Amino acid sequence: xxxxxxxxVYSVQEGLLFAILALGVxxxxxxxxFPDLTVDGSYPxxxxxxxxxxxxxxxxxxxxxxxxxxGALAGLMTGALNTFSKxxxxxxxxxxxxxxxxxxxxxxxxxxxxxxxNLGHHTVFSLLKNAFSGVPETYLRLIFxxxxxxxxxxLLDLFLHTEIGxxxxxxxxxxxxxxxxxxxxxxxxxxxxxxSNALVALSGAMFAQYQGFVDINMGIGMVVAGLxxxxxxxxxxxxxxxLFMTLQVVLGAVVYRMATAIALNWGYRIGFKPYDLKLFTGxxxxxxxxxxxxxEKMKGLK
Amino acid sequence: MLTxxxxxxxxxxxxxxxRWAIRNLDLRVQGGEFITIxxxxxxxxxxxxxxxxxxxxxxxxRVFINSEEVTKYPAFRRAHYLGRVFQNTYQGxxxxxxxxxxxxxxxxxxxxxxxxxxINDSMxxxxxxKLSEVGLGLENRLRDRVGLLSGGQRQALALLMxxxxxxxxxxxxxxxxxLDPKTAExxxxxxxxxxRNDHLTALMITHDLSEALNFGTRTLxxxxxxxxxxxxxxxxxxxxxxxxxxxxSETRHKQFAEDRALLSTAKK
Lengths: 302, 268
Prior knowledge:
The complex is a heterodimer.
Chain A (H helix, E strand, L loop, with lengths): L3 H29 L6 H17 L4 H24 L5 H20 L3 E3 L9 H8 L5 H24 L2 H11 L1 H6 L4 H27 L1 E3 L6 H15 L5 H25 L10 H25 L1
Antiparallel strand pairs in A: 1-2
Helix pairs in contact in A: 1-6, 1-7, 1-9, 1-10, 1-11, 2-3, 2-4, 2-9, 3-4, 3-9, 6-11, 7-9, 10-11, 10-12
Chain B lengths: L1 E10 L7 E11 L4 E6 L5 H9 L6 E6 L2 E2 L5 H4 L3 E4 L13 H9 L13 H14 L16 H13 L5 E5 L7 H17 L3 E5 L3 H6 L3 E6 L2 E7 H6 L2 H12 L6 H9 L1
Parallel strand pairs in B: 3-8, 3-9, 6-7, 7-8
Antiparallel strand pairs in B: 1-2, 1-4, 4-5, 9-10
């Protein structure tokens, strides 16, 4: 078995990959109040588009940019279903997600693809390894991911403080307010859902590079995992301004990933199997969401 | 300033539940008028405001604001002409945003919104001055989230936000109804002060008949989607609540049925 420090480093790395997805989920669920289930489709979409670009000889940065744009387009589709066709948000996301399953398979050509240096594929991680050959690879990855997540968090913080950003956040509070202030709420929803899914797809592209392969089913349960990160973060850190809230999301993602890694690593002692992970995540979210209600009820009984 | 021309509005049109909510309504509002609107539930008061704001579109008839026809404009496209405060104190402000962020949103009304950072120091100063004028102690809480404020404070903020961009017409939909009497009085005074100082044209729905007569320059009474009484000038100044109710039953051959109105009248 690996040492505790290795374990920590790996779960923090994966947590940071998750944080990108969780920041996207944060925009829809917390800012826009738009429960967007596109995530389960846009996450593998990002990975699929990245692999597609790699197999056509493009470098990893082009692939990541393409994944980001593809995610934004997926978000626009969900947004348009909701704002133009007036389909409820939940159903809009589900429809896009199901369409994306086939689209992702089309892009990939088969259900799983490997990305490997032996095949001449480059990822940001392999580029890093070649550039800084003296530094241990795990630490390179960790530092790079920390930098990337902080950069994305900072950009998102800035975006949410711009004129458009404020309008997006206000849309989640009161659509009537937004309208009387001359903002088209359809537009803010479209932009918000697009940015959200762009981040989710980027997260998918990063994870594909990290694990070295893309699998058509890698998106299953991702929206719940993202939501778990968001609410775990809210339990961990108090603070209601945007800088704090996005920090909550990042920390929440890391802690959530650690919790799942602990369950996977040592859970076998209590009979935990890898396929129990989704159940674990589901129960975790159910527990955190129900806890305040249960606490209130208990108070009432006393 | 504001004209409604032969406006009709149906709800659930061509179904068994069809309701003719607004019937051939004509309304001409001059600049600087402050109109109070009373009427029982379902009389069409809020529907009229929604037709003006663009939240509803008329089935026939036309709407003009500042002599521009806006009949088919969606709400956000005519927002720069209008300010609006709602009854629900959570509707007119964004609760998860700070006071200054709320102001910043109102500040950009009618202008394009881009990727500029929304608030700068000169704006902050303006918001502070504006808030200190109303004397609610909010000028030192610019970075507090609006969700932390009381209903009265939120409503005061909503009023300031609605009037910050010099709207042509201010729409008030029972904006003091969810507040306790003392706070309601304060907000009403603030409303009056803002309308006077900025020479605003305003339409205010209220269920309080004494409020309807004491404030403003003209009173409309609505019933069944029509304006049944339209009183202004000297005649309005002398009018008492019992006389108003008498005139209603004379015209409509029925009693004015609005429990809340009668209750609040009985109190006074």
